[in-house]
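Quick one:
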Amino acid sequence: MVSVIFFEKKWAAMSKIPYIGIVGVKNIEEAISASASIHYVLNNFPISHRGQVGVQVTTRTLRGEKTESKRNPVVTDIPEIFRAALATRDDIFTAVHFTTREYPALYDSVCKIFDMENMYADNICRGLQLNMQFGNLHYGMMEKIRIRYPELQIIMQLHRTALETMSHGAIVFGLKSYNNCIDYVLIDPSGGRGEELVPASCVSLAERIQEHNDLAIGFAGGFNQFNVARLVEEISGWLGSNDFSIDAESGLRNKLGVGYGNDTYSPKKALAFFHNAAATFMKLQKTAC
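Output:
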């Protein structure tokens, strides 16, 4: 196998542009709406962030099984979902958010996703977020993925299980072992459940990560149209920088009842969230100049 070090210089040159993510899109209509919202807002707020359109994939949906969650698309529809998003704005950061506990099968699962209708080869899907138990994934597996898909931008989610059970030092050490195989780390104490993050504690971990790893930082956890301006300003104040990503999922949806995923995507909430996030980053950029 070609060593991952062979590609290190190329990866280092890749731009880890911060993003504002709209996650949980499940069909073409939602993708067009999300992309149109991103296009409209970024035309009015020329910030350094790009927009992400994210879809959820799980081990079960990848096998073609139905789940109770209303956030998961039919997997075979994903290439057309992303094509629709890119047709509206061609610099959208399209990303699959993949949740699995079947760690030995990760490489085969990723190949199944990104080889589908040449999504990777045709630059239809540009990102992969791994939602899994941090620390259970062997470096060799990530190396295989990186070598197979060298230009794929990979986001490692830090779920609340890791945040609650591992010390900051252990997390930093674990990320260092993947450092050449991932691009972003997303600190996400909510995991799509709409629980608002605590900026001070999340930023404390982010600073430790950036001291020892060449990784872009992102935050998730309860973002919505009403709190995103306050949370972004608080994170920026603690971090001393605006160079970070955010994404939202639950805060962009209308609840239908109890339980995770028992909700529907709201174009109005997504537009308001993205607008308020971009306006806040724009204000912070001007303040920093």
